[in-house]
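Hi C.,

You asked whether I'd gotten around to modeling the 257-residue construct. I have! Everything is below, sequence then structure, no commentary in between.
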Amino acid sequence: MAYRPTRHFPAKGPPALSQEEQVYIRDLVFYEDDALIAFNKPSGLAVQGGSGVKRDIDRLLAAFATRKGRRPKLVHRLDRETSGLLIVAKTSSAAAHLSAQFAGRQLHKRYLALVSGLLADKQGHIDLPLVKIKSAGIDLMRPATAGDGEIQTALTAYRVQAAAPAASLVEISPQTGRMHQIRVHFAAIGHALAGDTKYGGLVMLANKPCPRLMLHAEALDFTHPKTGEPMHLHVPPPDDFSDFVRAVIPNCTSGQA
């Protein structure tokens, strides 16, 4: 009988997580119960895989898989450069419940952003429809104009917390959940987010280099998908965010950023 070498087939699915990866994702857990997990995502960590992405939360969720292989499910996104709260659902019913809250605008999000310059109004709304475009193969958004197809309504409420001539620290509550909504809205009114190289944000403020996109998802208010109880989660901005804010806005206290 002729010798036939043993054939080796690659294992199905993504490679198993390393011990270091499991420790890394578990260290990001801010809150956990039997229905959901909330992560305090650092800037630079992608939520989903893609071109040039070496590590992403979606893959790392394998660390929380059940014995039957069921993994938590993403129910919303944060931009790779944005830090802050990201919640995932542990069960299909929790995922459906949370997704419905996002879609129905029943879940309230609050962000902190450092924008260039002084805003004319200390609080207000930016009501500016958006449209998705492709630029060099990358999905971006821009303000809609007459004749655009698939126009998306977009509304952003804001309140200035602290300001200096170079920049303003702004608390932001998006009323809709469009891709890059906050970034495009503030760029459109001439106050682009610091460090936002996609939408014209400055990389230097008050002669100081900006460490990254200055956007932090600080709070989520929603209804717990299992108990029905109101939930309020809040994470303060990380040191790189707070330190830079205080460097360009000297009167900004640690409690504000």
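If it helps when you're writing up: The chain has one domain: 19-248.

Thanks,
B.
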